[in-house]
Amino acid sequence: MFFPYFTFKPPFNTVNVLKLGSFIVLILLTSSCRSANSNTNTPKTPSPPQTSRSEISISSKSGKLVGGETIAISGSSFLQSEAGVDKRSLGIGLAGINDYSPQFPFLDQFKVSRKWISQQEGKDWGDGDPLDLDDRGWVKSLKPGQSADRILINVKDKHWPFKRYVVRYEGSGKMTYGRNAIQDESASSPNRDVIEVNPERGSMTVLTITETDPNDYIRNITVVPEEYLDEYDRGEIFNPLFLQVIDKFRAIRFMDWMRTNHSEQSEWRDRPKVEDLDYRYAGVPIEIMVALANKIHADPWFNMPHLATEEYMQEFAKYVRDNLDPDLTVYVEHSNEVWNWGFEQAQYANKTGRQRWAVNGDPEKAPGNSYMQWHGMRTAQMCDIWKGVFAGQTHRVHCTLGIQKGWEGLEQGALNCPKWVEEGNEACYKHGIDSIAITTYFSGCLNGKKNDEEATAIVRSWFSEPDGGLTKGMEQIENAAHFPCKNTSSGDDFSYHKQVADEYELQLLAYEGGQHITGNSHPTQNDEDFIKFHIGLNRDARMYDRYQEMLNNWKNSGGALMMHFVDIATPSKFGSWGALEYLTQGSSPKYDALVDFNDRTECWWQGCGRLATAQDKNALKPKKISVKIGDRPCRDLRVVGDDRLICTTPKGEALGSVNVTVEVEGKTIDLPEGFTYVE
User: Which of 109, 349, 459, 460 is the 20 to 30 A CA-CA neighbour of 281?
Assistant: First the structure.
């Protein structure tokens, strides 16, 4: 279930007030069932996924709350938007683009698909001869007995948002569909196939080119949910269900969408293009990322590849300057975790820095922190380029230096870069850097680290308890109740890095944060008992409180913008990083904690307020309105247009005759009694 959001439409940049007025309860006949062949030009409302929560509709005419429809409470003076200033404090990172991701961000599913796999009759799977591809990657021709597979979806959880797709293409040939996909022959036509996918038949959806005309080969394939075909044809790029998950956040970090880690991008001409077959391998084009930021009115956070040329950075900055909503701030960071030896960018920084500052030609005698000095230098150069491109409007750019939280003092090399200063430059921090950025991760030391067998044994002893050790695990996460650990949700100390930021007159940001409870890279990573325990902790309702503790600790320490890692991801032995586990989940302890904190806690750092536009939905949430269905409050509430309220209520818990209560600024509005909730 997705949580709906506000879409108030006030006059642009106008401060408005919330007023209590006359109420008229109207029925809004927005059926969740739509004809697949409808040619109406009316924008379609996303169908609520069938989960444990349901959107409902109030109608004074029929006296019913109808599941799957929309609450409509209207009146000419009921709601005028409140102050149009966005003061949300949290952002979120977007999980990487993959066929196995439960994120489903684009309407065209082909954009996340896997590379062509050559098949040959009589040979094992994937052992076909090399495919004949054109310069864009489309299959130009096939040899006798050869075919080309494309994995469109490989999502193991069964909570898929769509069950029918329309596959359209240019050229002449034949395609078939396998694994969990079946073609609907009766609904298909030339160059337009309709397929039904069913995750109960398996996790993989496969498209196969079995025939193609070399003179007019199959190309420009799109795979779009049938129910959103009209929207796609009108130019919509993004899955509305995905937008409803991420548009609750102030900023979005594109690190994984840009394939920042181990990036090979260098020249601007080789950047990802909109017309690329997929965005899975090279990354998402800048045009798409800027379009998303504008769509949900969120500040974008970009990571410049560590190999990026000056031209690359200049052209990237120019595009952002000319196309990003001018009311938004662009955050820009050099690569990602250049201190992390698991990433190619750290290895490259170490090698390049040592070569640059070798002593008597010997790189091994270069300063041990050469990689951090090089990182600081490249950050400074990047900031100079971006601020130069934005000359006269540098307030639109926020340049941040990513540093390692756990190694206090390591940041000095990047901030001061003495070897670069010796070359005649000012210290790196004087080159337009606005902040340092760390992480806010907490784990309670439940990972099972090397050389800590005693702690690992203590944790393992909890697994035999009735709740599998979850209560003791939560106690340990909160305040290290069972063995020593500094990395807790309520006790983690950000004061050192805040002092550093203050010393250099910089802000302190968090480029990533959240829980870090996983055996990833530790001996327990493949231990099924630990994997189950770690995932269970992430799903536990008490994780909501642990997140609230961490977020308040960050706020009280003086940190500014914090970005959670990440939006939607399947939990595994590699970690439970997603705020949600799948797109249609709608609610989880982690996601709820983030959204509630954003709603209830105004940002506190200097300059954080910004004017909210009509697209900036969450910023306009009326804070003194509550709706109850019977004795159950709506979990989420939004305003649509100027006169409609939409509420989410627990499905199946308000059957029969119930009362609807609306409270505005402490005053209760009596609506007609005897409404009926219908599943």
Answer: 349
Question: What is the predicted pLDDT for the residue at 558?
Answer: 95
CB-CB neighbours of 35 under 10 Å: 9
Q: Flag the least confident range among 36-45, 396-405, 410-419.
A: 36-45
**539-564 pLDDT, tens per residue?**
999 999 999 999 999 999 999 999 99
Nearest one of 253, 227, 252 to 240, comparing CA atoms: 227
If you average pLDDT over residues 526-543, what whole number do you get?
Answer: 97
Query: How many whole angstroms separate alpha carbon 379 and alpha carbon 619?
Result: 32
Q: In whole angstroms, how far apart are CA 325 and each of 258, 317, 329, 627?
A: 20, 13, 9, 34
Distance CA 298, CA 324 (A): 10
Calculate the CA dihedral of residues 641, 645, 649, 651 and round it to 10 degrees: -70
**558-588 burial: b if 16+ Cβ within 10 Å, else e:** bbbbbbbbbbbbbbebebbbbbbbbbbbbbb
Instruction: Please state the three-class secondary structure of 652-674 as a single string.
Output: CCCCEEECEEEEECCEEEECCCC
Q: At what angle do helices 470-479 and 453-462 cross, to 10 degrees?
A: 140
**Nearest CA to 440 among 497, 480, 503?**
497
CB environment 268-305: b (16+ within 10 A), e (fewer): beebbeeebbbbbebbbbbebbbbbbbbbbbbbbbbbb
Question: In terms of DSSP H, where are the helices of 511-588?
Answer: 528-539, 543-556
Does the pLDDT at position 669 exceed 50?
yes
Question: What does the pLDDT read at residue 608?
Answer: 85
The rounded distance, in Å, linking the Cα atoms of 517 and 239 is: 30
Reduced to 3 DSSP states, what percent helix, strand and coil does the chain have, rounded to the nearest 5? 25, 25, 50
Residue 238 has pLDDT above 80, yes or no: yes
Q: Match 């065209």 to its residue by tokens.
A: 108
Cα end-to-end distance, the chain, whole Å: 15
Contact 140, 171 (CB under 8 A): no
**pTM recorded for the entire structure:** 0.80
97 neighbors 292 (Cβ within 8 angstroms): no
The residues that bridge with 639 in the sheet, in sequence order, are: 645
Nearest to 226 by CA among 202, 196, 198: 196
Do 672 and 25 contact (CB within 8 A), yes or no?
yes
What SS3 state is found at 316? helix
Question: Of 525, 529, 549, 547, which is closest to residue 538 (Cα–Cα)?
Answer: 547
For residue 171, give the nearest of 205, 143, 209, 226 by alpha carbon.
Answer: 209
